[in-house]
Design goal:
Structural class: mainly alpha
Radius of gyration: 27 Å
Number of helices: 20
Largest sheet: none
Number of domains: 2
Mean pLDDT: 80
Number of strands: 0
Distance between the termini: 55 Å
Strand content: under 5%
Helix content: over 70%
Length: 568
């Protein structure tokens, strides 16, 4: 049996890496669908003690299998003023440690676990079509496929242990650890998952293909890359969120680089790590993140002060840079290009409305003229965007459009109209309710405010899910969005019942704020419906496209049959 080529190895490894990355995301999306609201609530309740916040961040990262996903949640809380800077820093450092623990968990022996996970996952997923277990099924399937991908890497690398070209390449990385460090950071940023990249590197080490020094440099680079991913994903977030991610990037980058330089001079420091080469690398990864959390815990206050000085000015929501319109009139002669431009503009419109919704909840807790003005001003901006999108779509030449392009044009126009309604409901109606609450000197009961906040969280999650559906254009995402909309409707009805129960119990705050409380819930439900219509529009378009394709196929088959008869 001849030795496989380097090209074959790279091709196989690429497939295994792709499966690993996709599997990790499958787990994360499953956890987000099943436990998003509970996790958000869990994170918010940790705003008391630093140690508790750090532990909470670690637990959340273990559940989501991603420190980046936790970073996004933190950004949302910080944007609406419900998370202090020090607490956010504690959570993000804890999340990094939790993400390292995940890497260790996923390296356990698993011969009998894989089929068990896949069988249980598929069973839950299929049953979930009638029940609510699809998210749990995706979690189990994702974990099982992670194990499968790691086994694929092992099998692909085993025959190449003696390949001269491979050994030369790995030996070069072992000598140039700075390059390996950069590659580790770049690879992690590219796949947007530090867990996936660390597992990939450690598996190569376990196969004896990757030398120790190169592996250490790659994993330390992955730590920098993970912080870079969180930073880039929250660049458009509010000031406090950006401060948290900048601090995380600076501290992780500095410590990772410093540790790499120390190990270059004192390689014997790795001798205190026990186990195989792969275990030593993963232990170093865990130890690094534990040391990072431990060192940062006592200095979170000074760190927050420093990052405030580095980023001193508060982000003015009303003065955020507005990107130029995506509506390029030169593309009108080519409907496919024009529709792509319109889609990008609708997505931008949706992101603007989502930002309004994210910030408006602050006004129910405290009077903030800055936020109120910023959210209110965005209403006119969204109206203008809707008008421009509508006029742009109206200029498309009908004679140059096929049936699917016409359906897409109608879909985008409908979505833009619903997003404008969501903007008005957020920037006008919800602000009116918050103003009345403050003008009359009223406050929701503790339970009532908790219900409003949690319901707002759920609607915000669905808004973000809707925008993701708009980007992916995936029918299965549309169906999940529709199911989530129905769940919100039922929850709103249950919350209204709870409010009436407090009225019967003669809770003073509930009695005084009854109309405002009910109207706020109703508006949030309406906003959720407006975003959920993205799913309905996409599902309807997909169904019509399938029917049209089926009809065309039958027609072509019939014409072919007639042609054969004519020839005979």
């Amino acid at each position: 049996m001849h030795e496989p080529s380097l090209l074959y190895f790279l091709f196989t490894i690429a497939g295994a890496a792709a499966l690993l990355i996709w599997s990790a995301r499958l787990v994360r999306t499953g956890v987000e669908d099943a436990f998003a609201i509970a996790l958000r609530r869990f994170l918010q309740r940790s705003d008391k003690r630093r140690v508790q916040a750090m532990v909470t961040g670690g637990f959340a990262a273990i559940c989501l299998q991603s420190a980046t996903a936790v970073a996004v949640l933190i950004a949302n809380f910080a944007n609406r003023g419900s998370l202090r800077l020090v607490t956010g820093l504690a959570i993000i450092f804890g999340a990094d440690f939790g993400s390292a623990i995940v890497s260790q968990i996923l390296l356990v022996e698993r011969d009998f676990i894989i089929p068990l996970l896949l069988l249980a996952g598929v069973a839950l997923y299929l049953r979930g079509e009638r029940g609510g277990g699809q998210a749990h099924g995706r979690i189990l399937i994702g974990v099982g496929l992670i194990f499968v991908s790691l086994d694929m890497i092992r099998m692909a690398t085993a025959p190449l242990l003696g390949n001269p070209a491979v050994l030369t390449l790995m030996s070069y990385l072992d000598q140039d650890v700075i390059l390996a460090f950069v590659i580790g950071a770049a690879f992690t940023w590219l796949v947007h998952s530090s867990v996936a990249s660390v597992l990939f590197f450690v598996t190569l080490v376990g196969q004896g293909l990757l030398p120790m020094n190169a592996a250490v440099a790659l994993v330390l680079g992955a730590n920098l890359g993970g912080a870079l991913v969180a930073f880039t994903m929250t660049m458009s977030s509010g000031l406090e969120a950006r401060r948290i991610m900048v601090a995380n990037l600076m501290v992780r980058g500095a410590l990772a680089t410093g540790l790499l330089l120390v190990l270059m001079q004192q390689a014997t420091l790795l001798d205190w790590l026990r186990g195989s080469a792969a275990q030593k690398v993963i232990s170093l990864h865990i130890a690094f993140n534990f040391m990072l959390a431990l060192l940062c815990l006592p200095v979170l206050g000074p760190m927050a002060h420093l990052v405030r000085r580095l980023i001193p000015e508060r982000l003015d929501l009303s003065q955020q840079s507005i990107l130029s319109s995506n509506l390029d009139t030169s593309t009108l002669g080519t409907p496919s290009r024009a529709l792509a431009c319109a889609l990008r503009e609708v997505i931008r419109m949706g992101e603007t409305v989502e930002g309004m919704l994210r910030n408006v909840i602050v006004l129910f807790q405290t009077r903030d003229d800055h936020v109120e003005q910023a959210v209110s001003e965005k209403v006119d901006y969204v109206r203008e965007m809707h008008e421009q999108i509508k006029q742009f779509l109206a200029q498309l030449p009908p004679d140059k459009m096929n049936q699917d392009e016409r359906r897409q044009s109608d879909q985008l126009a409908s979505i833009a109209l619903n997003l404008e309604f969501a903007a008005e409901a957020t920037g006008v109606r919800l602000i009116e309710q918050a103003q009345q609450l403050k003008d009359e000197g009223l406050a929701f009961s503790e339970q009532g405010m908790s219900e409003i906040t949690e319901f707002h969280d759920r609607v915000l999650v669905n808004a973000q899910r809707a925008l993701n559906t708009l980007v992916t254009q995936a029918p299965e995402d549309a169906q999940r969005l529709i199911k989530a909309k129905e769940k919100v409707r039922k929850i709103e009805r249950d919350l209204q019942t709870r409010h009436l129960s407090r009225l019967r119990d003669k809770v003073p705050e509930s009695y005084e704020t009854s109309r405002i409380h009910q109207e706020t819930l109703r508006m949030l439900k309406s906003i959720n419906t407006a975003f959920a219509m993205i799913g309905y529009d996409l599902a309807k378009r997909s169904q019509k496209a399938r029917i049209a394709a089926s009809s065309k196929k039958k027609k072509d088959a019939a014409q072919g049959s007639e042609g054969k008869k004519s020839n005979v």
